[in-house]
Design brief:
132 residues
Length: 132
């Protein structure tokens, strides 16, 4: 368990996971078989291609965090593209998962010190009174 925590701490884990889950959710909301999509044309094929690329970008963020900026930008653009091609982005759930995951991955900073907990304010005192 400690090895998994160390591995997870060295990469934007939640961002990549949410992006991959968003792509998987959109793929699962597609109802037509791939044979039907091939006859529809490029618009129908994009309904499968964009969420598959979202899933791949999410996995690449997890396993190659050095390139997270490129993958997260591609992920947010792909997520927004599913609005038109894949049932409103998987009925908005996959769209939001993809956008939030991409933003988390983009904002992740490697080797950042963990946050310290803030001191709790004493009851009944304002911050100005705390300083004196």
């Amino acid at each position: 368990m400690a090895a998994f925590r160390r591995w997870r701490a060295g990469r934007p884990f939640w961002g990549g996971l949410l992006l991959a889950l968003g792509g998987a959710e959109i793929l699962l909301t597609e109802k037509a078989s791939l044979k039907v999509v091939m006859h529809i044309g490029m618009q129908g094929l994009a309904g499968y291609l964009l969420p598959a690329l979202m899933l791949i970008c999410g996995l690449l963020i997890l396993f190659n965090p050095a390139q997270r900026l490129f993958y997260s930008i591609c992920g947010v653009l792909l997520s927004l593209g599913t609005w038109l091609t894949s049932n409103l982005g998987g009925f908005l759930v996959g769209l939001f998962l993809g956008v939030v995951g991409s933003c988390l991955a983009f904002g992740w900073l490697p080797n950042q010190e963990p946050r310290r907990s803030r001191p709790r304010w004493r009851r009944g005192r304002t911050p100005a009174q705390q300083q004196s």
